[in-house]
Predict the structure.
Amino acid sequence: MFAEQYSPQEMMAAVCAMEIHNDDVAFVGIGIPMMAGLIAAKTHAPNATLVYEAGGVGAKSRRLPLTISDNPTTENAIFATEMWRIFSDTQAGFIDKGIIGGAQVDRYGNINTNVILGNGTYDRPKVRLPGTGGANDIASSCGETIIMMKLVKGKFVNKVDFISAPGHLHGYDSRQKAGLKGGGPSKMVTDKGIFLFDPESKEMYLSAVFPGEDPLEIKTYFEWDLKIADHLECLEPPTQEVIDIIHYYDQDGMILGGKKTMDTEFEAYYQKMKANYTAIELNL
Amino acid sequence: MSKLTTIEKAVSQYVQDGMSISLSGIGGREPMAVVYEIIRRKKRDLTLITDSKMDSACMLIGAGCLKKMETAYCWISSLGGAVNYRRAVEKGIPAPLEVEEYSNYGASLRFLAGAMDVPFLPTRSMLGSDFLQYNPRLRQMQDPYQGEPLVLVPAACPDVAFIHVQQADRQGNCKILGATVNDMNMARAAKKVIVTCEELVDTVEIRKTPNMTAIPYYCVDAVVHVPYCSHPFFVAEYYWCDMPFRREFMKRNDSQEHFEEWLKEWVYDVPDFDAYLDKVGRDRLEKLAEMELDNVNMAGREC
């Protein structure tokens, strides 16, 4: 049963969840990717192994992790280890895919999460961003990378101010030439559509749109002349089951925008958290 | 030999202005009690050598304790931007902050190199991206065996590391539950190591499961028993995150002036961490513990 009411972020999480397959070992980063991982684990991919940067592998959580080392990242896990070990396993090719996001992306899927320079310099930038965290390592060495970004004007640029996580660098075989072993970006999921990368030039193109979205409107978000697939696919809405899972895990609206709460009342939080995890069935 | 001390003594004895420090955890097990004490004692010109950090780094920056951060990531995750980090780097408020950037793997290998006492380690991370352009301490070389490109990261050997663990004995043998991040290597790389623990246990408890010992006593200089040390953050199998507290902090941190009012209320005007916990509320802390214990280790248990 398709959901009748859902937000673009919920659609994005649902679509991203479909990228995690039952036999995958997959990195899930902070925010919507974590939600996507949990949706996958609760629906079509119960055997998928979710990997968190700080050392959690294969957790079965009843609570939504909010950062890469939260308690739920090792809850009922198969493995709790060190960060250098997780990324050594990544560099050695054990991790199939990773989902990452960013503040800027270019046509080859290079991502910036370090600085927006504006008229400033690296030392005194217009906007200081968090830094790459493990996204660089994931993008360098995972079998493939899935980019997840909301379509916002100014984020899809000709040249990113800082390559934090490598995409296909300058296109064609430049990534391989740089010495990177991971496959690089295979897909970009946004809140209006899905993008793939040309097998030869490695330039991204619009491949599918969400229900009711106009490809020509989507084009306006891009600084470059975005290519569109000859046969554009139209995606179905998320199922009600997926939307319910999102609502169970995120009762406090901490991950999915729109209903993000800044409620500071403790008792309400305590009750919501309880309702949250008692609603989640633990399939061990 | 017991190495037990207090937070006040550990911070005043081991942290001098101008030193480099490291802190355990990411979110979970960030030693907030130590951070508050460093701020309270107005330590200055510190360098924070880290992988990824959240509220701990942001508070030290906003309180003017840091001159430099060697880092992969700094943010108030799931709540919004690291306001203090942005103010310091973009505007020099309250003081300019020098930033030296790595990826998480790069930062991790720096602690591993420090723990091995070798000057650097190689990785394929950061190839093709812009870290080499802005961080002169990163080098690229050809692998002398097969000729492929590699990035070298310099070893990290902080002057002092504060590591929060779930259980430790009086000598400093430590058990960490959940993700261990880079803390085992940090403890071996740092010149001085102060362990804070949720629970003080007898050595016989350590001996029952020796493969769970993350840090052996010979790496450790001092041990402090600090329940709820990471509040408002998590500690696996002990307590859950106090998100309303962090939201309140974020709400009030809309300017340096307001951040300093927050610091006055929660740090400067609070004599020590015990008084801070009283101010948070003991009932509230117990509820955070309950929210964690309801969920941990359900595998194989009746529920």
